[in-house]
Protein backbone atom coordinates (compact mmCIF):
# COMPACT_ATOMS: atom_id res chain seq x y z
CA UNK A 1 0.00 0.00 0.00
CA UNK A 2 1.49 3.32 -1.07
CA UNK A 3 1.20 6.46 1.01
CA UNK A 4 -0.30 9.43 -0.79
CA UNK A 5 0.86 12.97 -0.11
CA UNK A 6 -1.24 14.82 2.44
CA UNK A 7 -1.39 17.83 0.12
CA UNK A 8 -1.30 17.22 -3.65
CA UNK A 9 1.23 19.20 -5.66
CA UNK A 10 2.13 19.46 -9.32
CA UNK A 11 5.41 17.62 -10.13
CA UNK A 12 8.57 19.54 -10.97
CA UNK A 13 8.09 21.69 -14.07
CA UNK A 14 4.29 21.34 -14.13
CA UNK A 15 1.79 24.03 -13.21
CA UNK A 16 -1.90 24.76 -13.67
CA UNK A 17 -4.54 27.47 -13.51
CA UNK A 18 -8.29 27.90 -13.79
CA UNK A 19 -10.74 30.75 -14.18
CA UNK A 20 -14.26 31.61 -15.25
CA UNK A 21 -14.40 32.62 -18.91
CA UNK A 22 -18.16 33.07 -19.05
CA UNK A 23 -19.38 29.62 -20.08
CA UNK A 24 -20.77 29.03 -16.58
CA UNK A 25 -22.69 31.69 -14.72
CA UNK A 26 -20.47 31.07 -11.71
CA UNK A 27 -17.54 28.86 -10.83
CA UNK A 28 -14.45 28.15 -12.90
CA UNK A 29 -15.06 26.71 -16.36
CA UNK A 30 -11.60 26.82 -17.96
CA UNK A 31 -8.45 25.02 -16.85
CA UNK A 32 -4.89 24.99 -18.14
CA UNK A 33 -2.16 22.45 -17.34
CA UNK A 34 1.37 23.22 -18.49
CA UNK A 35 4.84 21.68 -18.52
CA UNK A 36 7.80 24.03 -18.87
CA UNK A 37 9.41 21.33 -21.00
CA UNK A 38 7.79 19.26 -23.74
CA UNK A 39 6.74 15.99 -22.16
CA UNK A 40 6.48 12.42 -23.34
CA UNK A 41 2.77 11.71 -23.61
CA UNK A 42 0.16 9.00 -24.00
CA UNK A 43 -3.63 8.98 -23.95
CA UNK A 44 -6.67 6.76 -24.11
CA UNK A 45 -10.10 7.94 -25.18
CA UNK A 46 -13.74 6.89 -25.10
CA UNK A 47 -14.93 3.88 -27.09
CA UNK A 48 -18.30 5.55 -27.60
CA UNK A 49 -19.21 5.59 -31.30
CA UNK A 50 -20.23 9.25 -31.10
CA UNK A 51 -17.00 10.82 -29.83
CA UNK A 52 -16.75 14.50 -29.04
CA UNK A 53 -14.81 16.91 -31.23
CA UNK A 54 -11.97 17.17 -28.67
CA UNK A 55 -11.61 13.38 -28.77
CA UNK A 56 -11.48 13.40 -32.57
CA UNK A 57 -8.82 16.11 -32.53
CA UNK A 58 -7.01 14.63 -29.53
CA UNK A 59 -6.53 11.29 -31.24
CA UNK A 60 -4.59 13.09 -33.96
CA UNK A 61 -2.56 15.30 -31.63
CA UNK A 62 -1.40 12.42 -29.42
CA UNK A 63 0.06 10.52 -32.39
CA UNK A 64 3.31 12.48 -31.91
CA UNK A 65 3.47 11.35 -28.26
CA UNK A 66 4.60 14.85 -27.29
CA UNK A 67 2.63 17.38 -25.23
CA UNK A 68 3.38 20.57 -23.39
CA UNK A 69 -0.10 21.60 -22.29
CA UNK A 70 -3.70 20.54 -21.78
CA UNK A 71 -6.59 23.01 -22.02
CA UNK A 72 -10.00 22.02 -20.68
CA UNK A 73 -13.41 23.67 -20.53
CA UNK A 74 -16.48 22.58 -18.60
CA UNK A 75 -20.26 22.96 -19.08
CA UNK A 76 -20.21 22.46 -22.88
CA UNK A 77 -18.79 19.18 -24.21
CA UNK A 78 -18.47 20.04 -27.92
CA UNK A 79 -20.13 16.75 -28.88
CA UNK A 80 -22.56 16.41 -31.77
CA UNK A 81 -21.31 19.65 -33.28
CA UNK A 82 -20.05 18.43 -36.68
CA UNK A 83 -16.99 19.68 -38.52
CA UNK A 84 -17.39 23.11 -36.96
CA UNK A 85 -16.98 21.54 -33.55
CA UNK A 86 -13.63 20.03 -34.56
CA UNK A 87 -12.50 23.41 -35.90
CA UNK A 88 -13.43 25.04 -32.60
CA UNK A 89 -11.54 22.35 -30.69
CA UNK A 90 -8.40 23.18 -32.65
CA UNK A 91 -9.02 26.90 -32.05
CA UNK A 92 -8.99 26.08 -28.35
CA UNK A 93 -5.56 24.47 -28.51
CA UNK A 94 -4.24 27.24 -30.77
CA UNK A 95 -5.29 29.90 -28.28
CA UNK A 96 -3.64 28.02 -25.42
CA UNK A 97 -0.44 27.57 -27.44
CA UNK A 98 -0.36 31.29 -28.18
CA UNK A 99 -0.76 32.17 -24.51
CA UNK A 100 1.92 29.70 -23.45
CA UNK A 101 4.24 30.38 -26.40
CA UNK A 102 4.50 26.71 -27.30
CA UNK A 103 3.79 24.57 -30.35
CA UNK A 104 0.12 24.27 -31.24
CA UNK A 105 0.49 20.57 -32.04
CA UNK A 106 1.73 19.96 -28.49
CA UNK A 107 -1.43 21.26 -26.84
CA UNK A 108 -4.34 18.87 -26.41
CA UNK A 109 -7.87 19.87 -25.47
CA UNK A 110 -10.81 18.40 -23.56
CA UNK A 111 -14.39 19.53 -23.08
CA UNK A 112 -17.09 18.24 -20.74
CA UNK A 113 -20.71 19.17 -20.20
CA UNK A 114 -23.90 19.28 -22.24
CA UNK A 115 -24.04 17.65 -25.67
CA UNK A 116 -25.10 19.13 -29.03
CA UNK A 117 -24.46 22.72 -27.98
CA UNK A 118 -21.95 24.80 -30.00
CA UNK A 119 -18.72 25.40 -28.10
CA UNK A 120 -18.46 29.12 -27.19
CA UNK A 121 -14.85 29.13 -28.30
CA UNK A 122 -14.63 32.92 -28.40
CA UNK A 123 -15.12 32.97 -24.62
CA UNK A 124 -12.37 30.38 -24.25
CA UNK A 125 -10.01 32.33 -26.49
CA UNK A 126 -10.62 35.50 -24.50
CA UNK A 127 -10.39 33.65 -21.21
CA UNK A 128 -6.98 32.20 -22.02
CA UNK A 129 -5.42 35.64 -22.46
CA UNK A 130 -3.22 36.34 -19.45
CA UNK A 131 -3.82 32.93 -17.93
CA UNK A 132 -0.13 32.01 -17.98
CA UNK A 133 0.41 34.49 -15.17
CA UNK A 134 -2.03 32.52 -13.01
CA UNK A 135 -0.13 29.22 -13.25
CA UNK A 136 0.56 27.66 -9.86
CA UNK A 137 1.66 24.39 -8.26
CA UNK A 138 -1.69 23.46 -6.66
CA UNK A 139 -3.44 20.79 -8.78
CA UNK A 140 -6.73 21.43 -6.99
CA UNK A 141 -6.82 24.83 -8.69
CA UNK A 142 -6.73 23.17 -12.11
CA UNK A 143 -9.21 20.53 -10.97
CA UNK A 144 -11.75 23.21 -10.03
CA UNK A 145 -12.03 24.31 -13.66
CA UNK A 146 -12.99 20.91 -15.08
CA UNK A 147 -15.93 20.02 -12.83
CA UNK A 148 -19.51 19.57 -14.00
CA UNK A 149 -21.74 17.78 -11.48
CA UNK A 150 -18.79 16.91 -9.24
CA UNK A 151 -19.25 18.09 -5.68
CA UNK A 152 -15.56 18.80 -5.09
CA UNK A 153 -12.26 19.15 -6.94
CA UNK A 154 -10.17 15.98 -7.11
CA UNK A 155 -6.38 15.69 -7.16
CA UNK A 156 -3.89 13.32 -5.55
CA UNK A 157 -0.10 13.02 -5.46
CA UNK A 158 2.20 10.13 -4.68
CA UNK A 159 5.87 10.94 -4.20
CA UNK A 160 9.09 9.05 -3.69
CA UNK A 161 12.73 10.09 -3.57
CA UNK A 162 13.01 9.99 -7.35
CA UNK A 163 9.80 11.55 -8.68
CA UNK A 164 6.26 12.78 -8.05
CA UNK A 165 3.12 11.52 -9.77
CA UNK A 166 -0.04 13.61 -9.62
CA UNK A 167 -3.52 12.87 -10.93
CA UNK A 168 -6.29 15.40 -11.53
CA UNK A 169 -9.74 14.05 -12.35
CA UNK A 170 -13.43 14.74 -12.72
CA UNK A 171 -16.41 12.51 -13.31
CA UNK A 172 -19.75 12.19 -11.64
CA UNK A 173 -22.38 10.78 -13.99
CA UNK A 174 -22.49 8.84 -17.26
CA UNK A 175 -19.74 6.62 -15.90
CA UNK A 176 -19.42 2.96 -16.91
CA UNK A 177 -16.43 0.69 -17.51
CA UNK A 178 -14.39 1.94 -20.44
CA UNK A 179 -14.26 5.21 -18.58
CA UNK A 180 -17.07 7.73 -18.44
CA UNK A 181 -17.90 11.42 -18.43
CA UNK A 182 -14.53 11.21 -16.95
CA UNK A 183 -11.51 13.37 -17.58
CA UNK A 184 -8.25 12.33 -15.93
CA UNK A 185 -4.81 13.87 -16.32
CA UNK A 186 -1.66 12.24 -14.97
CA UNK A 187 1.48 14.32 -14.57
CA UNK A 188 4.93 13.12 -13.51
CA UNK A 189 8.46 14.44 -13.55
CA UNK A 190 9.78 10.88 -13.90
CA UNK A 191 11.93 10.07 -16.92
CA UNK A 192 9.79 7.64 -18.91
CA UNK A 193 9.73 7.06 -22.66
CA UNK A 194 6.49 7.61 -24.57
CA UNK A 195 6.35 3.90 -25.42
CA UNK A 196 6.72 2.84 -21.80
CA UNK A 197 4.30 5.53 -20.64
CA UNK A 198 1.68 4.27 -23.08
CA UNK A 199 2.06 0.72 -21.75
CA UNK A 200 1.91 1.85 -18.12
CA UNK A 201 -1.14 4.02 -18.84
CA UNK A 202 -3.10 1.22 -20.48
CA UNK A 203 -2.32 -1.27 -17.73
CA UNK A 204 -3.28 1.29 -15.08
CA UNK A 205 -6.51 2.27 -16.83
CA UNK A 206 -7.58 -1.36 -17.26
CA UNK A 207 -7.16 -1.98 -13.54
CA UNK A 208 -8.96 1.17 -12.48
CA UNK A 209 -11.01 3.51 -14.65
CA UNK A 210 -12.16 0.73 -16.98
CA UNK A 211 -13.55 -1.05 -13.91
CA UNK A 212 -15.57 1.96 -12.73
CA UNK A 213 -19.33 2.27 -13.04
CA UNK A 214 -21.75 4.87 -11.73
CA UNK A 215 -24.70 4.40 -14.06
CA UNK A 216 -23.60 2.04 -16.92
CA UNK A 217 -23.59 4.88 -19.48
CA UNK A 218 -20.36 5.36 -21.44
CA UNK A 219 -19.67 9.01 -22.21
CA UNK A 220 -18.76 10.59 -25.51
CA UNK A 221 -15.87 12.51 -23.97
CA UNK A 222 -13.82 10.06 -21.88
CA UNK A 223 -10.16 10.98 -21.81
CA UNK A 224 -7.14 9.92 -19.77
CA UNK A 225 -3.89 11.70 -20.62
CA UNK A 226 -0.45 11.06 -19.12
CA UNK A 227 2.54 13.39 -19.39
CA UNK A 228 6.11 12.72 -18.21
CA UNK A 229 8.55 15.63 -18.54
CA UNK A 230 11.60 13.89 -17.05
CA UNK A 231 12.65 16.94 -15.02
CA UNK A 232 13.42 14.79 -11.98
CA UNK A 233 16.29 13.51 -14.13
CA UNK A 234 15.79 10.10 -12.54
CA UNK A 235 15.32 6.95 -14.57
CA UNK A 236 12.58 4.84 -13.05
CA UNK A 237 12.28 1.16 -12.33
CA UNK A 238 9.43 0.47 -14.73
CA UNK A 239 7.81 -2.26 -12.62
CA UNK A 240 7.84 -0.06 -9.53
CA UNK A 241 6.57 2.91 -11.55
CA UNK A 242 3.74 0.76 -12.91
CA UNK A 243 2.72 -0.21 -9.40
CA UNK A 244 2.66 3.39 -8.19
CA UNK A 245 0.86 4.52 -11.33
CA UNK A 246 -1.82 1.84 -10.98
CA UNK A 247 -2.23 2.52 -7.26
CA UNK A 248 -2.79 6.21 -7.98
CA UNK A 249 -5.30 5.41 -10.72
CA UNK A 250 -7.20 3.13 -8.36
CA UNK A 251 -7.27 5.82 -5.67
CA UNK A 252 -8.67 8.34 -8.16
CA UNK A 253 -11.19 5.74 -9.36
CA UNK A 254 -12.45 5.34 -5.80
CA UNK A 255 -12.75 9.12 -5.45
CA UNK A 256 -14.76 9.35 -8.66
CA UNK A 257 -17.05 6.51 -7.54
CA UNK A 258 -17.65 8.07 -4.13
CA UNK A 259 -18.66 11.32 -5.84
CA UNK A 260 -21.02 9.72 -8.35
CA UNK A 261 -24.20 11.71 -8.87
CA UNK A 262 -26.31 11.34 -5.74
CA UNK A 263 -23.93 8.74 -4.30
CA UNK A 264 -23.63 8.14 -0.57
CA UNK A 265 -21.21 5.22 -0.58
CA UNK A 266 -18.43 3.50 -2.50
CA UNK A 267 -19.05 -0.05 -3.74
CA UNK A 268 -16.12 -2.40 -4.30
CA UNK A 269 -16.72 -5.74 -6.01
CA UNK A 270 -13.89 -8.23 -5.50
CA UNK A 271 -14.20 -11.32 -7.67
CA UNK A 272 -11.76 -14.11 -6.88
CA UNK A 273 -11.12 -17.70 -7.96
CA UNK A 274 -12.45 -17.19 -11.49
CA UNK A 275 -11.13 -19.25 -14.38
CA UNK A 276 -9.15 -16.23 -15.55
CA UNK A 277 -9.06 -12.43 -15.26
CA UNK A 278 -11.43 -12.01 -18.21
CA UNK A 279 -14.13 -14.05 -16.50
CA UNK A 280 -13.52 -12.28 -13.20
CA UNK A 281 -14.08 -8.91 -14.89
CA UNK A 282 -17.35 -10.12 -16.42
CA UNK A 283 -18.75 -11.06 -13.03
CA UNK A 284 -17.39 -7.94 -11.31
CA UNK A 285 -18.98 -5.70 -13.92
CA UNK A 286 -22.27 -7.57 -13.72
CA UNK A 287 -22.40 -6.88 -10.01
CA UNK A 288 -21.32 -3.24 -10.09
CA UNK A 289 -23.66 -2.41 -12.99
CA UNK A 290 -26.76 -3.96 -11.43
CA UNK A 291 -29.33 -1.35 -10.36
CA UNK A 292 -30.59 -3.84 -7.78
CA UNK A 293 -27.14 -4.23 -6.24
CA UNK A 294 -26.79 -0.45 -6.15
CA UNK A 295 -30.18 0.09 -4.51
CA UNK A 296 -29.56 -2.83 -2.17
CA UNK A 297 -26.42 -1.11 -0.93
CA UNK A 298 -28.22 2.20 -0.57
CA UNK A 299 -30.97 0.55 1.48
CA UNK A 300 -28.42 -1.29 3.65
CA UNK A 301 -30.12 -4.56 2.71
CA UNK A 302 -27.99 -7.76 2.58
CA UNK A 303 -30.25 -9.23 -0.11
CA UNK A 304 -28.58 -12.42 -1.30
CA UNK A 305 -31.10 -12.93 -4.08
CA UNK A 306 -29.95 -9.80 -5.85
CA UNK A 307 -26.34 -10.92 -5.70
CA UNK A 308 -27.19 -14.35 -7.10
CA UNK A 309 -29.26 -12.75 -9.85
CA UNK A 310 -26.44 -10.44 -10.92
CA UNK A 311 -23.98 -13.31 -11.17
CA UNK A 312 -26.43 -15.74 -12.74
CA UNK A 313 -27.26 -13.44 -15.64
CA UNK A 314 -23.70 -13.78 -16.99
CA UNK A 315 -24.72 -16.25 -19.66
CA UNK A 316 -22.08 -18.41 -21.37
CA UNK A 317 -19.84 -18.27 -18.29
CA UNK A 318 -19.02 -21.07 -15.88
CA UNK A 319 -20.66 -20.83 -12.47
CA UNK A 320 -20.84 -23.67 -9.95
CA UNK A 321 -23.25 -22.63 -7.22
CA UNK A 322 -21.94 -25.38 -4.94
CA UNK A 323 -18.51 -23.71 -4.99
CA UNK A 324 -19.79 -20.14 -4.83
CA UNK A 325 -19.14 -18.07 -1.73
CA UNK A 326 -20.53 -14.56 -1.20
CA UNK A 327 -19.10 -12.22 1.43
CA UNK A 328 -20.37 -8.73 2.33
CA UNK A 329 -18.16 -6.48 4.46
CA UNK A 330 -16.30 -9.53 5.73
CA UNK A 331 -19.43 -11.55 6.56
CA UNK A 332 -20.08 -14.76 4.61
CA UNK A 333 -23.73 -14.68 3.54
CA UNK A 334 -23.85 -17.57 1.04
CA UNK A 335 -21.87 -20.83 0.86
CA UNK A 336 -22.41 -24.49 -0.02
CA UNK A 337 -25.41 -23.53 -2.19
CA UNK A 338 -27.38 -21.93 0.66
CA UNK A 339 -27.72 -18.77 2.70
CA UNK A 340 -25.59 -18.83 5.83
CA UNK A 341 -26.80 -18.12 9.34
CA UNK A 342 -25.46 -14.59 9.80
CA UNK A 343 -26.50 -11.70 12.04
CA UNK A 344 -28.61 -9.67 9.62
CA UNK A 345 -29.06 -6.71 11.97
CA UNK A 346 -25.32 -6.38 12.50
CA UNK A 347 -24.64 -6.65 8.76
CA UNK A 348 -27.23 -3.98 7.99
CA UNK A 349 -25.40 -1.68 10.38
CA UNK A 350 -22.12 -2.54 8.67
CA UNK A 351 -23.54 -1.72 5.22
CA UNK A 352 -24.84 1.58 6.61
CA UNK A 353 -21.43 3.17 6.01
CA UNK A 354 -19.61 5.04 3.26
CA UNK A 355 -18.06 1.87 1.81
CA UNK A 356 -19.47 -1.59 1.03
CA UNK A 357 -17.25 -4.45 -0.11
CA UNK A 358 -18.77 -7.41 -1.96
CA UNK A 359 -16.46 -10.41 -2.23
CA UNK A 360 -17.29 -13.17 -4.70
CA UNK A 361 -15.34 -16.44 -4.56
CA UNK A 362 -16.13 -18.61 -7.58
CA UNK A 363 -13.96 -21.61 -6.69
CA UNK A 364 -12.99 -22.18 -10.32
CA UNK A 365 -9.40 -20.94 -10.67
CA UNK A 366 -7.04 -18.10 -9.84
CA UNK A 367 -8.47 -15.22 -11.92
CA UNK A 368 -9.41 -12.07 -10.05
CA UNK A 369 -10.68 -8.55 -10.70
CA UNK A 370 -12.07 -5.59 -8.79
CA UNK A 371 -14.82 -3.23 -9.94
CA UNK A 372 -15.72 0.12 -8.40
CA UNK A 373 -19.06 1.88 -8.23
CA UNK A 374 -21.56 3.64 -5.99
CA UNK A 375 -25.09 3.25 -4.72
CA UNK A 376 -28.13 4.39 -6.71
CA UNK A 377 -30.17 7.01 -4.90
CA UNK A 378 -33.05 9.44 -5.28
CA UNK A 379 -30.37 12.08 -5.70
CA UNK A 380 -29.17 10.50 -8.95
CA UNK A 381 -32.69 10.61 -10.42
CA UNK A 382 -33.31 14.16 -9.24
CA UNK A 383 -30.00 15.45 -10.57
CA UNK A 384 -30.37 13.90 -14.02
CA UNK A 385 -34.05 14.73 -14.38
CA UNK A 386 -33.14 18.38 -13.89
CA UNK A 387 -29.88 18.38 -15.89
CA UNK A 388 -29.81 21.22 -18.39
CA UNK A 389 -29.72 20.42 -22.11
CA UNK A 390 -28.84 23.83 -23.49
Automatic annotation (TrEMBL):
Q: Name any one GO molecular function.
A: L-glutamate N-acetyltransferase activity
Q: In which pathway does it act?
A: Amino-acid biosynthesis; L-arginine biosynthesis; L-ornithine and N-acetyl-L-glutamate from L-glutamate and N(2)-acetyl-L-ornithine (cyclic): step 1/1; Amino-acid biosynthesis; L-arginine biosynthesis; N(2)-acetyl-L-ornithine from L-glutamate: step 1/4
> Could you list the residue ranges forming a coiled coil in this record?
none
Amino-acid positions noted as binding substrate in the UniProt annotation, renumbered to this chain: 148, 170, 181, 261, 384, 390
Q: Supply the enzyme class, top level.
A: transferase
EC numbers, comma separated? 2.3.1.35, 2.3.1.1
- Domain of life, per UniProt, equals Bacteria
**Key words of the record:** Acyltransferase, Amino-acid biosynthesis, Arginine biosynthesis, Autocatalytic cleavage, Cytoplasm, Multifunctional enzyme, Transferase
User: In chain numbering, where does the site feature Cleavage fall?
Assistant: 180-181
The residues annotated as site (Involved in the stabilization of negative charge on the oxyanion by the formation of the oxyanion hole) are 112-113
Cellular component terms per the entry's GO annotation: cytoplasm
Q: What catalytic reaction does the record list? A: N(2)-acetyl-L-ornithine + L-glutamate = N-acetyl-L-glutamate + L-ornithine; L-glutamate + acetyl-CoA = N-acetyl-L-glutamate + CoA + H(+)
Q: Mind listing the GO biological process terms from this record? A: L-arginine biosynthetic process; ornithine biosynthetic process
Protein role: Catalyzes two activities which are involved in the cyclic version of arginine biosynthesis: the synthesis of N-acetylglutamate from glutamate and acetyl-CoA as the acetyl donor, and of ornithine by transacetylation between N(2)-acetylornithine and glutamate.
Quaternary structure annotation from Swiss-Prot or TrEMBL: Heterotetramer of two alpha and two beta chains.
**Family indicated by similarity:** Belongs to the ArgJ family.
Q: What is this protein called?
A: Arginine biosynthesis bifunctional protein ArgJ
The beginning of the lineage is: Bacteria, Pseudomonadati, Lentisphaerota, Lentisphaeria, Lentisphaerales
